[in-house]
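Reading a protein record of the kind used here takes only a little practice. Each token is a code from a learned vocabulary of local backbone shapes. With that in mind, consider the following protein and its fold in token form:
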Amino acid sequence: MAQLPFIAVEGPIGVGKTSLSKKIAAHFEFHLLKEIVEENPFLGKFYDDIEEWSFQTEMFFLCNRYKQLEDIDKKFLQEGKPVVADYHISKNMIFAQRTLKEDQFRKYSRIFDILTGDMPRPNMVIYLHAGLDTLFDRIRMRNRDVEANIQPEYLHQLSEDYETFMDHFENTHPDIPVIRLNGDNFDFVKHQSDLDYILEEIKAHMNKGEVIK
């Protein structure tokens, strides 16, 4: 059965999730859901000392994303209004598995399952990926203070984690369309033709009846 569009744009840090989400929202007149990033008071400390500050950082993100999805469900999805988000709630587990100690991860997983068990999940995913040079170029361009100390090793591991996660996601959710885009080859900010291609891909999936307009 076709569903109201709830699109998630996902990918590693710096790949352009928010920029693309904004353009999708403007083109299709969808509500834009943006994740809270710089407001996380632990994030700068996290990049300085991942082991020390990972649990606090991930719990802050989880609680805020839970609240965002709860609000989105009540104010938009239940009212028949489409949404595009610059994250998928499952991203929390990607980061948690990479950064948390084993005992912390067990606690975190239980909390995650409780909070998100009945939350709405996106029914279309756009997955952006890119090489480290592209990611670091874009991170430098947006010049966020909290991202100044991101290490290449961490970003490389995270990119690999995303690839593993998306492969698993496609295998376990064959009913949810995934549009994969290589950020090394697509620059939808500078090139309208690249953006047009992405918008047409989204429209094609909606026209197939996988999600309704």
Q: What stands out?
A: The CA atoms of residues 59 and 108 lie 8 Å apart. Strands lie at 6-10, 31-33, 83-85, 124-129, 178-182. The chain has a mean pLDDT of 93. Helices lie at 17-28, 43-48, 50-75, 91-99, 102-116, 132-142, 152-172, 192-207.
